Amino acid sequence: VILKILQNWVPRVSPYFDKEHYTYAGHQIIIQESIEHFGAVVWPGALALSQYLESNQEQFNLKDKKVLEIGAGTGLVSIVACLLGAYVTATDVPEVLENLSYNISRNTKDMNMHKPEVRKLVWGEGLNEDFPVSTYHYDFILATDVVYHHAALDALLATMVYFCKPGTVLLWANKFRFSTDYEFLEKVCNIFNTTILAEFPESNVKLLKA
Prior knowledge:
Blueprint lengths: L1 H8 L7 E8 L2 E8 L9 H12 L10 E4 L6 H8 L3 E6 L1 H15 L8 E4 L6 H4 L9 E5 L8 H11 L5 E7 L3 H13 L3 E6 L4 E5 L1
Parallel strand pairs: 3-4, 3-6, 4-5, 6-7
Antiparallel strand pairs: 1-2, 7-9, 8-9
Helix pairs in contact: 2-3, 3-4
């Protein structure tokens, strides 16, 4: 049964590129996907968080706030945060950065907004060197579908803890598939003051604030 689930979920290796069209914050966003890599596909959590940020601007006003997205993937959430007025730093592993930079650049250029930044961030590695605490403080940490069957969950949790200083809000949207997802959620709840903001039953996505 698990094998069948994984086969349905894992993108097939293919050089095929696709362009997906979305509309958030009054703008059409065109995202180039590549199903060669997990990080180059728009996952359900990104759609859920983008929709929530657009619909709840009074609760989470991103205007002129410093926002860090970890595991930014295709960049959809970072683009939406830019459109909502944030200073955005979108991060991911090196092999995803080219597509991420392309999507962010094409959807934010020539617009009256803070210019977003794209940077390499491997969870748990070189945090003090690349993002020293004395220089970098973020109002919001955004993460979508960063928890699934992979070996870097402890490093991901350490990265969340590193960037969440007093006053920082972590918004994490994730499709819950496996027991490891719920185990990670339990660890987050043990460390952070955590609340469930929304649930999307049709896609098994939960959106949490910590």
